[in-house]
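We emphasize that the prediction below concerns an isolated chain of 252 residues; any contacts that depend on oligomerization or on bound cofactors are therefore not represented. The input was used exactly as deposited, without trimming of termini.
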Amino acid sequence: MAPLPSIFEQAKLSHQLHHQNVPGLVRRFHITWEQAKAIVATCPSCNQHALPTLSVGLNPRGLKSCEVWQTDVTHIPQSGRSKYVRVSVDIFSGAIFASAHTGEKTSDVIKHLIQAFSFMGIPRELKTHNGPAYCSREFSSFLQQWGVGHKTGIPHSPTRQAVVERTHCEIKRVLNQQQPVLKTETQMSLLARALFTLNLLNCTFEVLNPPIIHHFGANPQLNIKERLPVVVRDPETGRTEGPHDLVMWGRG
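Result of the prediction step, given as a token string:
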């Protein structure tokens, strides 16, 4: 059996596939900052495409996750017919959900949001621009059904949607970084891989928790308090005992 690569080599191999940022490499592989910076600095793809950076505490007023989301659409031509990629981002945690669509109608927005709700929970308030898809009676009725408030920005003022606009750039950068290695993947798989990197691998210099952990850990309503009961086998007697309350969940 071939020996396992060193931790540093494992970090390099992981970065070649996912292109996570420096804090993400430090958190996952417990290498030094200098080693992580060297991996990113010597990566041709990261030199060509600026590595995504995240911002912790995107709202300075102490909001918790699922208080406010921003949502918008961006165009990714290489996705073919499904080039309209809708993106929702939680203002507090930075957690992201994105889905590809064939159009920009209200029905596409609703499909995206239902998927986003199933992934990140239901926000108290949704911020959008004043486009037709967000101002329709159908969209207003949909948000009322789900109990979601709605705020729109100033017409023709993209600064009101700065967080989601920055997220568009991050998604496109990660897609460009990962695509040379994943040429045979479908566009849907590529988008899912990009979300995996942004939500679960990347983190910040300030907080070494990825956005999705920050998202669910910061909101008591989204925390799973109950632990699954487990049974254990006594290695000496071979007898199965339990069920017992699970004390810790993680790698053995």
